[in-house]
Amino acid sequence: MSVNDVTTNEVANAALSCEGIVKSFQGVVAVNGASFSVPEGQITALIGPNGAGKTTVVNILSGSMKSDGGTEHIGSTDVSNWESYQIARMGLMRTFQLSRELGGLTVLENLLVAPKTQSGESLFNIFFRPGKTKREEHANTQRALDVLQTYGLYALRDNRARELSGGQKKLLEISRAVMAEPKILLLDEPMAGVNPALIEKIGGYILDLKAKGVTILMVEHNLNVVEKICDHVIVLAEGRTLATGRLSELRENKEVVRAYLGEVIDASSAR
Amino acid sequence: MTQVFYYVFTLIFFLFDYFILAMGLNIQYGETGILNFAYIGFVAIGAYVTGAVSLPNSVGTGQHYILGLNMPFPFNLLIGGLTASAFAVLVALISLRRLRTDYLAMVLISLSLVLYDICNNFVPLFNGADGLYNVPAPLAGVLHLTTNSFIPVIALVTGVIAMFLWWVMSRITQSPLGRTFRAIRDDETVAAALGKNVFRKQLTSMLIGSFYAGIGGGLIIQFGGSFNPSAWLPGETFVVFAVIIVGGVGNNVGLLMGSLLVETLLVHLPAFLPAIPGHPGLIEYIDAMLIGVLLMVMLWFRPQGVVPERVRKSTVIDKLLLNSNGASAVGESLHDEEATSVSQ
User: Fold this and answer.
1) Which residue of A247, A266, B77, B242 is 20 to 30 Å from B191, comparing CA positions?
2) What are the residue ranges spanned by the domains of chain A?
3) Quick one: CA torsion of A203, A207, A213, A217, rounded to 10 degrees?
4) CB contact under 8 A, B182 and A105
5) Which string of DSSP letters, residue by residue, matches B242-276?
């Protein structure tokens, strides 16, 4: 149960794993040797008190930020310190804690940006293979409209993304990542600041993605949600992996309780 | 009366030429978000190289310059555009890899000053402060044109080139590539997280924009027959910025409007006014001030420009895709009304 014993057995069916990730910002250590693996096809929660380094870990795993040390594997490929776009092309997509919509683009265009290989992104194809570009664009548009339908954003397809509400932007983040057909999806607080009905909805979407075989790692503070949808939990504290396991097991772990769960257990016993 | 006729064609020339320049800056700044404060440097490279390849060998001309290939139109222009593009690769490698936004802008404006000093002081390159002159007029030999009758011809030629480049630019901005450019402009971290190689796309955008800058510059030296450092003080970059901001960043029709309002009406029309007695050059200063004021007024009251960027509606995207077979992705199996709005 304790920290650094990521066994080879676990790594074998891990979709994503990291070992000894270190990152500091001008002397402040944000991540201090975090190691864990994310099992394939499951939903894993990344929890921990504020300042535990969860978002920094997500940023490093997705390549948006460079680590100071440590290794990262997607499947068996070493992707340590790869560029963000290279990691994305390996099938790892992420969302952002504060929604980052492409504001000047419409909702539909936000989704259309996402497919990884588009022949229409090359100057040569635009002018010399317009037929192929058009067919691809047509297929992508169809699929994007279907995704928007699924996520309840269809009516907003022609609005500029910056005009959406907070909850709608959360949905746009997820649907844009889905449009890219990820194998692994990192969700950074997908339910922060949204109303209970929408939390329910987003939880359903995440379970649907799992059913389609997507591996999910989500940063989440709401333990009710974690309990309901997550198979596996990783606890970060002070930039280190404190424990991993099922939430029910972790509730018995004194260290974890002290660092994070204490109040919540009280609250849930009152429930 | 004939004088007025030539004035009008001079204005038409500048209208189209600055439309070309505006399209080039717009793909870099308006579409991709690269704050290229060195833009006028690319225009100058296009102009110098176009001039230097059209002139004969420099020995015995009284000027010093490289190349001197007697190259005819339009090949000289093409070489000018391509050289500006090649220079863009160099600039991008120096500056775009690591720098962003304000810092990038500072480095670019410095690069433009360095380039200016080199061209101004290193005489063997492009004749130093005197610049290039006696550049042969395009098609003049073929069509037997005089100095004056040449003006409508080059205005027309520039118009044709501008229309062609407009068509090319529309194809690019409406393509997935253009959409990826705009994604990078809006948030390059997100674009990278979606698997876009941001540096390569920015480089592509720089290449395209600089080619337009080079062509625009090449036409300027062909129009005037001469080009020297006083024509491209680094501040000239901001005239092109004024064109695209006033006209409308991200909209090609807006750029044509901007070129008409700023370059044609503000910069060149007053040049034909009689000088204010006792104050030579005062009109130009008033001009420069007016551009500054116009820029501020626009940014304050109408930052989207006279003709704002279009919202690319799904029906429009669809029409572009399917004009051949008439089927429609939108509304095929989906109903507008059943889609939900999310509470909150």
Assistant:
1) B242
2) 8-101+183-270, 102-163
3) 40
4) yes
5) HHHHHH-TT-HHHHHHHIIIIIIIIIIGGGGSPPP
Give domain status of residue B309, yes or no.
no
Residues 208-267 of B with CB under 8 A from A: 208, 250
**Dihedral (CA of B296, B300, B303, B306) sign:** negative
> Is the CB of B311 less than 8 angstroms away from the CB of A134?
no
The answer to whether residue B204 sits within a structural domain is yes
| CATH of the domain spanning A8-101+183-270 | 3.40.50.300
Q: How far is B175 from chain A (nearest CA, A)?
A: 6
Distance CA B109, CA B103 (A): 10
pLDDT tens by residue, B104-154: 888 888 888 999 989 888 877 888 778 888 888 887 667 777 777 788 888
| Res A1 pLDDT > 50 | no
Task: Identify whether B315 is part of a domain.
Answer: no
| The total number of structural domains that make up chain B | 1
Given a contact cutoff of 8 angstroms between Cβ atoms, the answer to whether B245 and B258 are in contact is: yes
pLDDT band at B274 (very low <50, low <70, confident <90, very high): confident
Flag whether residue B64 sits within 8 Å of chain A, measured between CB atoms: no
The mean per-residue pLDDT over the stretch B295-315 comes to 85
Taking the C-alpha atoms of residue B25 and residue A196, their distance in angstroms, rounded to an integer, is 47
Judge if ipTM > 0.90.
no
Q: What is the DSSP letter of B71?
A: P
Please state, in angstroms and rounded to a whole number, the distance separating the CA atoms of residues A15 and A72: 11
Examine the pLDDT at B328 and tell me if it is beyond 60: no
Do the domain assignments include residue B46? Answer: yes
Rounded distance between C-alpha atoms, residue A141 and residue B318, angstroms: 8
Question: Strand, helix or coil at A18?
Answer: strand
Average pLDDT of chain B is: 84
